[in-house]
Design brief:
The chain is an alpha/beta fold. The chain contains eleven helices and nine strands. It is elongated, with a radius of gyration of 21 Å. The relative contact order is 0.11.
Length: 279
Amino acid sequence: MARIDDLPPLREVIASHGLSARKALGQNFLLDLNLTARIARIPGDLSRTDVLEVGPGPGGLTRGLLAEGARRVLAIEKDPRCLPALAEIAEACPGRLQVIEGDALEVDPLAHLTPPIAVCANLPYNVGTELLVRWLTPPDWPPFWRTLTLMFQREVAERIVAGPGDKAYGRLAVLAQWRCDARVALSLPPGAFTPPPKVSSAVVHLTALPGPRFPARADLLQRVVATAFNQRRKMLRAALKGLAPDIEDRLTAAGIAPTERAERVPLEAFCALARSFER
């Protein structure tokens, strides 16, 4: 029986299975197994953890996760061309890799995973942000996952970890930092991928907190933040006037100057403003 170390190089796998990356699927393959191993090590010890991987492609990161000792990996892949390559990895790691063909936006992974669960993925660019927001905004908290280790375009990664006053600070930063510790764990140049994208990439590591940093109802916080940043260049008294006729009083009570702009408002103040809509 083949072992994972005996599998052929990824370039050979791509050539033998005809796996040219498809722009329509947001595919950019990471072929350097040293890099995929580094990404797989970011979440820490996975020996007692199930891992959800979205968009494994030919399986570079999948190999890294299994080689680094992940208890099990559930890989969701939309492109049927990649399934034979992933089947070869599954054969080399009996009982440790399950592959589901489907759209990660539609597949419920929880029936196939046993906690604790980590998510680790080189996300397809066209669905990465939507998946992240879904994982950050479940109905109940703590979420099903313990950590998220995700590859994004560098610009998106900076939006997740930005602080008030940064140009990149916005809705993603507030949602991520409200209930997680977030950091950029690794940066990668375009040349690390096949084909090279036009932008640099970065791996963001998020660790779920037991509860929110500041109290607020998730739906109200999301509404306030989305509205505020939808017109980020406007003063908040104008950007948020559609939420309540007394918005200036609410802003003042939350410790926010009505003339302030969203990009300068800290997380705690957004949460205070969201709480004002609970009554």
